[in-house]
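Student: I would love a firmer grasp of how sequence relates to backbone shape in proteins. I am handing you a single protein, as its sequence and its fold in token form. I am told such tokens are a discrete way to write the fold. I hope you can help me see how the letters and the tokens relate. Take your time, and here it is.
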Amino acid sequence: MKKIYLLGLISLFTFSCKEDFIDLQPISDMNAGIFYKTEKDMNQAVLSPYASLRSLYNQNFIYVSEIRSDNTTFSWVPGNSKDMTSIDNFGDPLLSDNTYVTNVWNDSYNTILRSNIVLDKIEAVTFTDNKLKEQYKAEARFIRALVYFWLVRVYGDVPKVDHQLSVQEAYTIGRSSTEEIYNFIVEDLKFAEANLPASYAAVDKGRVTVGGAKGLLAKVYMTMAGYPLKKGAPYYALAEAKALEVINMPQYSLVPDYKALFDVTKKNSSESLFEIQYKKGGTSTGSPWNNDFAPRFSNREVVQVGDKSGFNAPTPDMSKAYEPGDPRKSISMSDGYVAVPGGQTVNEKYVKKYYDVSFSGSDNDNNWIELRLADIYLLYAEALVRQGKQQDVALMYLNKIRERARNSIGGSANILPDYAPFSSDAEFLLAIEKERRVELAFENHRWFDLVRTERAKAVLSAEQKEQNGFDPAAWKDNMLFFPIPLQVIQSNPEKINQNPGY
């Protein structure tokens, strides 16, 4: 029997049963058609797409963003090396049957399906508080928008699905244009912005707020202004305005110490707009990065893990991107470790941001910060420069990022001095690009920044030539997007076509 891969369809739906938001753990499969009867049922339903995000951020999104960029590489991973290296190395053919490309597609549409089930079923449920009903819808629409934002940046044109599909309907869905998908994302985020609260009680901390919706909308507008839609100045103005709304929200501020951002005891800080929530404890809600990011060949010298993978290792170019003395480097990565026994230094780079050193293995407390205020500051500065306006304001926000970085080690004037006014917009934009790279390193932003600013070819050709002998003349613009998974095309060849060049 032919399988439906187009939308990652599932017939059963996963729910959660405890009161505390992060503790919610899928424990049973219930038929989505008959379960929803009360407000409590709908609360459980809303939490299912949140839980699904954990699968996407565990590894899937890292493959198609950080590792695709010049920030990180697969240093060594046992098994499936061809699928991994073809994502990392532009000199290797990236095939449409790539396991990781397929997993991103399927898990993304699984998450969208969970959001759509909420939206399809909620209208039939009686609420004593209609504001709560609209909030639940807004949460589902935010998560749907977030996942579609990933899909459209990874694959380009993708199927737009705004309701729960039957198997028969799945065969009728083709790819919608990139612009249509972006407009769909904007529509969802505007609804979310209008109906989400500014904060939650402690038991629900981690659910998306109005600040998260505004922040993501600012990022979406910035992307629409650049490649591939190239909507330009009007959308830079929209991004500027929306970013400023976030900046002016009193509940958000930069955390004084950069290191504290990634402290597992200080999650969901004043800088955080939206985090993917993880919690250790053997209930499948923990994060895996202790294990995944440990350097290859290490033997528990760095962190207490079991099987090291060498996955997502910083590149030499990433290491060189930090200015001398920048405290963000030692917080974010290391160029090596000291082996035991022997005490010799092993030159194997590894990511440090996501280490819960109090625990071992792949069940840890680290959250993944998807949106934070520093990102918004830098987007705001860039939007101003791209419109040729308020360069003094843009410079102020750029320097706020450097000020926080140097304050992390006591504010030494010799470390990361403020930028002086720039002689040209081009010089200013390169400085912003550099600050975004080191400030947001290993947080899944770099690849998409290079694509939207049309800098990917120049930057990655040079990095690949140095690391892998890649001939820059071999670059093709189809490399800016990933192939549509082969199994998706095979399941619906009349409606789903392949991206150019694959």
The longest strand covers residues 272-276. The longest helix spans residues 130-155.
